[in-house]
């Protein structure tokens, strides 16, 4: 994995486990505590996923805009993720907001399935 992405394993390990600091002109490499290293790891993963999400959105938009048939039908062909509370209106959503909206959609779907199944069962029992 590291060779294909041009990331040297040693450099990644150093970046995730140490920080550089300068005191009185001396450059020190200080190891992170376990919890700090975990935070750095999680932050890097979040940044990578966010960058990948932005790239996918960019490539998808680029592909759609360069296709005349899709451009003519842009009003009917889209990908939407509902913000169930409806009070957030961002020009561009982040990967984190996408995940929140996706989780909300899954919860809403589960709720709808559960309630409709319950209603259907109660209706069947009433007959």
From TrEMBL:
Pfam families: Myosin_head
GO cellular component terms, semicolon-separated: actin filament; axonal growth cone; cytoplasm; membrane; myosin complex
Domain (Myosin motor) ranges: 1-127
GO molecular function: actin filament binding; ATP binding; GTPase activator activity; microfilament motor activity
Subcellular location: Cytoplasm; Membrane
GO biological process: establishment of epithelial cell apical/basal polarity; intracellular signal transduction
Family membership: Belongs to the TRAFAC class myosin-kinesin ATPase superfamily. Myosin family.
Sorted UniProt keywords: Actin-binding, ATP-binding, Cytoplasm, Membrane, Motor protein, Myosin, Nucleotide-binding
SUPFAM superfamilies xref list: P-loop containing nucleoside triphosphate hydrolases
Principal location: cytoplasm
Protein name: Unconventional myosin-IXa-like
